[in-house]
């Protein structure tokens, strides 16, 4: 009798536990939906600028959004003179400040290239890192430059030449964001990954353990054949986006420039906070088909989000995917953000502890009707349908 009663009580408790778990899971089921989209920059009628490209997006220390792009003055080429333009939103993307130029590369013959934005949450500083003379067009030495903002992106410092510390090996940061390590190994470290020239190439990270005062290089994931002229199907990891996982490892998701092994993304994990990108930790993610492009990646509360033009041959079909198991597999369901021409993208979210901020991510991407360089578009995505 007593045992029977205990069993009954236990089974009631168990069913409550099961019920609560089921309810939790269904509430927490990720089912993203685009709730807002607006164009931040347009190619047509923009006066002194020919083309806007390479959009970066970050949340700031004070919980605002910052969108940063290359404003290409004369034409749409990667090389050539540019401004860096920014817009800032203090209401989670509903309205934006007018576009302003924060850098003019007028003194650099080859122009600048973006770039990586990284927030030091311990010191409330935003760093923006870009390159000069990456294409060796009318110049022979490339430089890695950095500006910083201590007032949430309202104003920026004079540029600092990081090549004085890093050396003059070509390094194109991002495009996308860098991270500050939240967990060991390397808690507090700033990590910004990028790629070298096509000949030397490979992906490597630059790191700072003192809040951006001194920077040093990590070990590269090298291209093959290293330091030799490449052919199609050779291994060239290019334009990476990195995220930190909850176990402190870093996942780097890179462009597969010449489609080695697959028309899909190159993934490499760093287990030492970005110091090395070991070949043992390399794989190809066949689900993440890709036309060779810079993509968006974000880790939010243990869920990985990924955006790219999901097509093996052409830059179109900008798609959001998500993974609940650290990228081992991706949910079959996807969200198509834009069926047409779309190229580079970048994802961010707010991490304020404010409950509303758990429910949204934000994407910025290159969007067009005929060509993806026509506009830069901002999208707000609600993660949980019906909430
Ligand atoms: C940055 O420093 C490097 C190394 O000293 C130098 O070669 C390069 O010219 C500098 N770049 C600029 C823009 O001053
Ligand atoms: C768009 O992406 C989805 C997800 O990868 C894929 O199933 C679909 O075939 C793609 N469509 C086009 C036209 O590329
Ligand atoms: C997801 O897609 C894969 C590959 O097409 C398939 O094997 C699997 O059964 C699908 N899973 C679900 C839950 O539909």
UniProtKB/TrEMBL annotation:
Sialidase domain segment(s): 63-355
GO annotations of cellular component type: cytoplasmic vesicle; lysosomal lumen; lysosomal membrane; plasma membrane
Reactions it catalyzes: Hydrolysis of alpha-(2->3)-, alpha-(2->6)-, alpha-(2->8)- glycosidic linkages of terminal sialic acid residues in oligosaccharides, glycoproteins, glycolipids, colominic acid and synthetic substrates
Main location: membrane
EC number: 3.2.1.18
Molecular functions per Gene Ontology: exo-alpha-sialidase activity
Top-rank taxon, per record: Eukaryota
Matching InterPro entries: Sialidase (IPR011040), Sialidase_fam (IPR026856), Sialidase_sf (IPR036278)
Signal peptide as annotated in the record: 1-28
Key word Repeat present: yes
Entry-linked Pfam families: BNR_2
Locations listed in the record: Cell membrane; Cytoplasmic vesicle; Lysosome lumen; Lysosome membrane
GO biological process, one term: oligosaccharide catabolic process
Keywords per UniProt: Carbohydrate metabolism, Cell membrane, Cytoplasmic vesicle, Glycoprotein, Glycosidase, Hydrolase, Lipid degradation, Lipid metabolism, Lysosome, Membrane, Phosphoprotein, Repeat, Signal
Keyword presence, Glycoprotein: yes
Top EC category: hydrolase
Membrane topology: Peripheral membrane protein
Similarity field: Belongs to the glycosyl hydrolase 33 family.
Function per UniProt: Catalyzes the removal of sialic acid (N-acetylneuraminic acid) moieties from glycoproteins and glycolipids. To be active, it is strictly dependent on its presence in the multienzyme complex. Appears to have a preference for alpha 2-3 and alpha 2-6 sialyl linkage.
Subunit architecture: Interacts with cathepsin A (protective protein), beta-galactosidase and N-acetylgalactosamine-6-sulfate sulfatase in a multienzyme complex.
Protein name (database record): Sialidase-1
Species assigned in the record: Cynoglossus semilaevis
């Amino acid at each position: 009798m007593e045992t029977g009663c205990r069993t009954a009580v236990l089974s009631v408790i168990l069913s409550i536990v099961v019920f609560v778990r089921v309810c939790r899971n269904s509430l927490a089921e990720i089912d993203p939906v685009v709730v807002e989209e607006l164009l931040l920059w347009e190619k047509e009628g923009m006066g002194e600028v020919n083309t806007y490209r390479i959009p970066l997006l970050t949340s700031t220390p004070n919980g605002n959004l910052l969108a940063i792009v290359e404003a290409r003055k004369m034409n749409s080429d990667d090389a050539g003179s540019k401004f860096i333009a920014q817009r800032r939103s203090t209401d989670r993307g509903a309205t934006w400040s007018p576009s302003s130029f924060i850098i003019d590369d007028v003194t650099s013959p080859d122009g600048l290239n973006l770039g990586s934005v990284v927030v030091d949450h311990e010191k409330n500083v935003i760093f923006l890192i870009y390159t000069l003379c990456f294409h060796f067009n009318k110049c022979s030495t490339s430089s890695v430059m950095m500006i910083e903002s201590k007032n949430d992106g309202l104003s920026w410092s004079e540029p600092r030449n990081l090549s004085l510390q890093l050396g003059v090996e070509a390094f194109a940061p991002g495009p996308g964001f860098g991270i500050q390590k939240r967990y060991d190994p390397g808690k507090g470290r700033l990590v910004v990954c990028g790629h070298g020239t096509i000949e030397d190439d490979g992906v490597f990270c630059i790191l700072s353990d003192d809040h951006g005062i001194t920077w040093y290089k990590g070990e590269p994931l090298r291209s093959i054949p290293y330091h030799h002229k490449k052919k199609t199907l050779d291994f060239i990891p290019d334009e990476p986006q990195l995220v930190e996982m909850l176990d402190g490892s870093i996942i780097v998701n890179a462009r597969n420039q010449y489609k080695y092994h697959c028309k899909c993304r190159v993934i490499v994990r760093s287990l030492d906070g970005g110091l090395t990108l070991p070949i043992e930790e390399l794989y190809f993610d066949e689900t993440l088909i890709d036309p060779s492009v810079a993509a968006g990646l974000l880790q939010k509360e243990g869920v990985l989000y990924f955006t790219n033009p999901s097509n093996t041959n052409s830059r179109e079909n900008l798609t959001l995917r998500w993974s609940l198991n650290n990228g081992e597999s991706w949910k079959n369901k996807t969200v198509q953000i834009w069926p047409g021409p779309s190229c580079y993208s970048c994802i961010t979210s707010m991490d304020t502890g404010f409950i509303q901020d758990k429910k949204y991510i934000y994407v910025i991407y290159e969007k067009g009707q005929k060509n993806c360089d026509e506009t830069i578009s901002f999208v707000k995505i609600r993660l949980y349908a019906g909430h």
